[in-house]
Design brief:
With 252 residues, the chain is α/β, with parallel strands linked by helices. The chain has helices spanning 23-26, 44-57, 82-102, 114-120, 124-137, 150-158, 191-204, 231-244, and strands at residues 4-11, 32-36, 60-64, 107-110, 142-146, 162-167, 206-208, 214-216, 221-225, 248-249. It starts with a strand and ends with a strand.
């Protein structure tokens, strides 16, 4: 079993005076932050504030590009040409790099958001378009992928730096994709349930699907969503449970 793992969260997803999640509290707990780049959420001021706090806390900064869909929070599937999506990914990564540099930090990784991520997890051509665009901007960036999906196949073929991700607060289908949010039990809210489940996955070196099926995979990082109710308590409970089990939480 791995004795070191990253704990990441999606954040910087407010917009103007509107707030989403408690980023300040989460940045005291997680080791990496996936920061929205202004398309599905976020704006320059939110990015700056979030990145400066991440730098101060020694939290790794990641770009979190998604569809240009503020109203749908990037969770609606948009049937766009792959080259258009690739340009949007490169554009958002560039914005994140500029804001991180100004805040005294650096973008270490990239993770696709929402519907774009879900689509790329089953569409290798889309995943390749997105990741190739990011690598054109920064050949050394770490691509964070949904473990054991088409995303992983693509980054292995590309030969780039990558990290396999599992979710603390989401249920899994037997093909390692996430259970649709509209279905009962798709999102977990209780650390007392989620933390032991994650530890079992680390011990097994596998995703454990809702059916009980084990899907062997490389687990480098664990994600929990910052916008869900009780996210801070969930993050704190998972970190404590893993630390008590002798696992070190560290950035990618």
């Amino acid at each position: 079993m791995t004795r070191t793992v990253d704990l990441n969260s999606d954040m910087g997803e407010g917009f103007g005076d509107w707030r989403m999640g408690d980023d300040a509290a989460l940045l005291d707990i997680v080791s990496s932050a996936n920061i929205a780049c202004g398309f599905h959420a976020g704006d320059p001021d939110v990015m700056d504030r979030t990145m400066r706090r991440a730098v101060a806390n020694g939290v790794g900064i990641g770009a979190h590009p998604g569809f240009a869909d503020l109203k749908g929070f990037g969770r609606r599937k948009l049937p766009l040409p792959h080259d258009e999506i690739a340009n949007a990914v490169a554009y958002q990564l560039g914005a994140a790099q500029a804001m991180a540099r100004r805040a005294g930090g650096k973008v270490r990784h990239l993770k696709l958001h929402g519907a774009l991520s879900n689509m790329a997890s089953v569409d290798p051509a889309l995943a390749k378009a997105c990741y190739s665009a990011a690598l054109d901007v920064d050949p050394d960036i770490v691509i964070m992928v949904l473990a054991a999906t088409a995303m992983e196949d693509v980054v292995r073929d590309l030969g780039c730096n990558w990290a396999g991700e599992i979710f603390a607060d989401r249920a899994y289908n037997d093909d390692a994709t996430l259970v649709d949010r509209s279905l009962p039990g798709a999102v977990l809210h209780d650390a007392a349930t989620a933390a032991p489940r994650i530890l079992k996955m680390l011990e097994a070196g596998a995703i454990i699907a809702e059916s009980g099926k084990h899907i062997p995979c490389q687990i480098d990082t664990i994600c929990l969503h910052g916008d869900t109710p009780g996210a801070v308590e969930m993050a704190r409970g998972i970190r404590q449970h893993l630390t008590d089990a002798g696992i070190t939480i560290t950035p990618l």
